[in-house]
Design goal:
Elements lengths: L2 E4 L2 E3 L3 E3 L4 E4 L5 E7 L6 E7 L7 E4 L12 E4 L5 E4 L5 E4 L11 E4 L5 E4 L9 E2 L7 E2 L5 E4 L4 E3 L1 E6 L2 E12 L5 E6 L2 E5 L21 E6 L4 E6 L8 E5 L5 E7 L4 E7 L15 E4 L6 E3 L3 E3 L2 H5 L7 E3 L4 H7 L11 E9 L11 H10 L13 E3 L5 E7 L1 H5 L5 H28 L2 E7 L14 E4 L2 E4 L7 H7 L5 E2 L2 H7 L8 E4 L4 E8 H5 L16 E7 L2 E7 L13 H11 L3 E3 L8 E3 L5 E3 L6 E3 L5 E3 L12 H6 L1 E3 H17 L15 H11 L8 H4 L8 H14 L10 H8 L42
Parallel strand pairs: 1-4, 26-31, 36-39
Antiparallel strand pairs: 2-11, 3-8, 4-5, 5-6, 6-7, 8-9, 9-10, 11-12, 12-13, 14-23, 15-16, 15-22, 17-18, 18-19, 19-20, 21-22, 23-24, 24-25, 26-27, 28-29, 30-31, 30-32, 33-38, 33-40, 34-35, 37-38, 39-40, 41-44, 42-43, 45-46
């Protein structure tokens, strides 16, 4: 029979004996302290476990490296005021090891947080010792993984050797300042993985799967040289914790009462190139290439044979010395001869940096040029990784000869430009005259991967009865037609689009999309009318129509109908019907993944149309969700399961729609309250006002105007209610788009009570770093050159 000797406190006069057995239970009953063992093992341990659940779940172990073997085992407060574990021979196998001035007044209390605290009356409210400062493999809420540089004190979590052996494993997770804090994972005390520098809001140089958005934040005190990372869940209705498992994976576990077991909500995957220094010094890791490691431009592998076998750890070496290095070798002053230059490397994971400052790009470059040991705008170029999105810009120093390679045809190019200028001028004159007489229609052209050389590309024309006729070849289009099955899609030639846009005239540029610029172009009426039935099987009045595309050499250009009223900022109705069509009614089930205000356009009648399907994914008929390692989208609109786990479904679009709906009602962007002391986002602000019954202080004055589409309080309240239902933290709690459409149309009158939205926890408490985060990545010009 179990015996509880106290609600939550062990007094100096009390002991725990294994033979009874006895437990200390936290006040709320969530945790218990006592002896435990594993199946098929005679080893016994003292630890903290979750209470009142059928699965034995250990969150802390006292004697993890010294298991008890005999039948007599005791946990008590010693005569010296230490918490100790003893065996049957009265030998101490574990102790808290503190200097206690009042041992008789000492108590050990198990808190509701899972923290075991040893304290006495004489030392005031501060504890003598606590389990949160000597953790095992579990990272509990409000626990602090810390680094006190002055005192040389680190608090880290350390993995178990195996799932049923809590002794020290190979992996440990801690925080390192590096003058700019980073969370690091070590394998046998060697740096194994690093997150990149903390800029005050996020770890820069890593993809958006950062766990800080789930309540994590870092506290920095550079004066005291103390740093720690902790987290607090905004919703405490579920049992959740993080664990560093024996394989080195950082896992978020959540109790599922229905299944009666723990489920993994998030798990870091062991990506090969994420291992620290996998490609060696001056090597770059890129998962999209094979092999994944390559040398920087101007460098070669130190050992070709090892490199070819997949051993890249020795890295690369420079094939041509920098100018300043050559000057020193020649005994002359540095700076003579041609200056070195810098190669820009985009979307990179940043190396470890010694310093950070607010100097601009030019100043950073000048400082680096004055220091011959500076090889880039950063000193230590190891652990570099190339990302497909986000990341930062690295400016890498190269000799001018290396920068000029690949430009040997420069003279020829210049000559071609001079010759083509005359041709283009004549072409424009003919085109202008032709457009004056021909009927035209509007379209918008999205240019993808259009290189600089195409701005100078000569347009070949053939004169035929006074009209400018385009002459082109489709020899390189066939392979694309087969691969993407474009039987119903018009393939435009590059020259056609160049003519339609005035050779991509800047005056016809409509704006900048997520990856590409967007231009307005014009086609003759008969050409435009041929596109009316293009991809009709997936057309909808609330989707921007795709007219065709151009696939030629390196050019890939979708062609869309032109929306004269630019982006949606104040209208929402119709968007829900467009999403419902994508999710349910289209012959292809499509998940948009980047729904936001700027991706909804208005036609001349102000009908909203969803645009920008560059990140969309097509699902099969029986497919409901998918996972990706490449999380793309816009901060503030991504659902938590997508941003953190890479998991997306139609409920991800529902979340984005909810954010958009609340933005429209409030007249605020979701990220407009990012630096607010009380609210992490607009969602947290709306949630607070909703619970206070004060939603009218939220509503934009424009929405309250008599001419607004939202005519009365009932409609406004309905929109806010629907928005909150859409942005609930868990996808299973959110409605489908068909339900949303019915609610908006008043077909459903009884709504569920919304649960707390995601991303409502303020993520940052920091003393020194005040810079805001950037979704699109940052440049390294914030760091001192060395």
């Amino acid at each position: 029979m179990e015996k509880v000797i106290s609600d939550s406190v062990l007094l100096a006069s009390e002991i725990l004996l294994l033979s009874y057995p006895e437990f200390i239970i936290s006040q709320s009953g969530v945790f218990r302290l006592g002896f435990f063992s594993f199946a098929n093992s005679s080893n016994r341990y003292v630890g903290i476990l979750y209470n009142q659940i059928p699965v034995q779940t250990v969150v802390w172990v006292a004697n993890r490296n010294k298991p008890l073997k005999d039948s007599s085992r005791i946990l008590n407060i010693s005569d010296y005021g230490n918490l100790v574990v003893s065996n049957g021979k009265a030998e101490v196998v574990w102790s808290s090891h503190v200097n206690n001035t009042a041992p008789n007044a000492t108590t050990a209390q198990l808190l509701d947080s899972g923290n075991l605290v040893l304290s006495n009356g004489e030392d005031g409210p501060s504890s003598l010792w606590e389990s949160f400062e000597d953790p095992s493999n579990v990272f509990l809420e409000t626990m602090k993984i810390s680094n006190d540089v002055k005192k040389g004190r680190k608090v880290e979590i350390k993995s178990w050797k195996s799932p049923d052996d809590p002794s020290d494993g190979n992996f440990s997770l801690g925080i390192e300042p590096f003058n700019i804090p980073e969370v690091v994972l070590s394998n046998n005390n060697k740096l194994y993985f690093r997150t990149g520098p903390w800029n005050g809001n996020i770890f820069i140089g890593v993809i958006m799967k950062t766990v800080y958005i789930d309540g994590f934040y870092i506290v920095v005190d550079n004066q005291q040289q103390t740093y720690y990372i902790t987290y607090e869940f905004s919703d405490n209705s579920r049992l959740r914790y993080y664990e560093l498992d024996s394989q080195g994976k950082f896992v978020k576990r959540e109790w599922d009462a229905g299944k009666g077991d723990w489920i993994n909500r998030y798990s870091t995957s062991q990506i090969e190139s994420s291992v620290y220094g996998q490609c060696g010094a001056l090597g770059i890791c890129d998962l999209t290439k094979q092999p994944i490691c390559s040398c920087l431009k101007g460098f070669k592998p130190r050992n070709i044979e090892e490199w070819s076998r997949g051993n890249w750890s020795r890295g690369c070496f420079r094939t041509t010395l920098l100018q300043c290095q050559r000057d020193k070798n020649n005994g002359s002053e540095a700076g003579q001869g041609d200056d070195d230059g810098f190669l820009k490397l985009k979307t990179m994971k940043v190396p470890v940096f010694p310093n950070r400052s607010s100097i601009n790009n030019g100043e950073c470059k000048d400082q680096c040029m004055k220091n011959c040991s500076c090889v880039a705008y950063a000193m230590h170029l190891i652990d570099m990784q190339k990302f497909s999105t986000h990341g930062v810009d690295l400016y890498f120093r190269l000799p001018s000869s290396e920068l000029d390679k690949g430009k040997s045809n420069k003279v020829i190019v210049i000559a071609a430009i001079i010759v083509s200028t005359v041709t283009i001028t004549i072409m424009i004159l003919f085109l202008w005259c032709w457009l004056k007489e021909e009927c035209i229609s509007n379209l918008a052209i999205c240019i993808s991967e259009r290189k600089q050389k195409h701005k100078q590309k000569q347009i070949k024309l053939q004169l035929n009865k006074g009209n400018a006729m385009t002459k082109f070849s489709t020899e390189n289009v066939g392979e694309y037609s087969i691969r993407v099955k474009l039987q119903q899609l018009r393939l435009f030639n590059f020259e056609e689009l160049a003519i339609a846009t005035g050779n991509f005239d800047h005056a016809k540029k409509l704006g900048q999309g997520g990856f590409v610029p967007v231009y307005r172009g014009i086609l003759r009426l008969e050409e435009f009318m041929n596109e009316v039935e293009v991809i009709s099987k997936i057309q909808h009045r609330n989707l921007v129509k795709l007219l065709g595309c151009c696939v030629e050499a390196e050019e890939k250009m979708p062609v869309y109908e032109y929306m004269p009223n630019k982006s949606l900022d104040t209208f929402v109705f119709g968007i829900s019907r467009g999403l419902l069509y994508l999710h349910k009614d289209s012959r292809l089930k499509v998940i948009h993944r980047d729904l936001k205000a700027s991706n909804v356009l208005l036609d001349q009648e102000l009908n909203p149309k969803i645009a920008d399907f560059g990140m969309a994914r097509i699902f099969g008929g029986d497919e409901n969700q998918a996972n990706t390692k490449r999380v793309v989208g816009t901060y503030g609109y991504m659902s938590p399961e997508y941003a953190i786990q890479g998991q997306f479904s139609e409920k991800s679009d529902v979340f984005s729609f909810g954010v958009l709906l609340l933005e429209i009602v409030s007249g605020r962007k979701n990220t407009s309250l990012f630096n607010n002391q009380d609210y992490f986002s607009l969602l947290g602000y709306v949630w607070k006002l909703w619970n206070e019954g004060n939603i009218w202080s939220l509503v934009d004055k424009v929405v309250l105007e008599p001419k607004s589409n939202l005519k009365n309080e009932k409609e406004i309240r309905r929109c806010i209610h629907i928005g909150l239902l859409c942005v609930q933290e868990y996808a299973t709690d959110r409605p489908t788009m068909s339900t949303v459409v019915s609610m908006l149309n008043s077909e459903i009158s009884n709504f569920n009570t919304p649960k707390q939205p995601a991303f409502t926890q303020t993520p940052l408490i920091t003393h020194d770093v005040q810079n805001r985060a950037s979704v699109n990545g940052v440049t390294l010009t914030d760091f001192d050159g060395k």
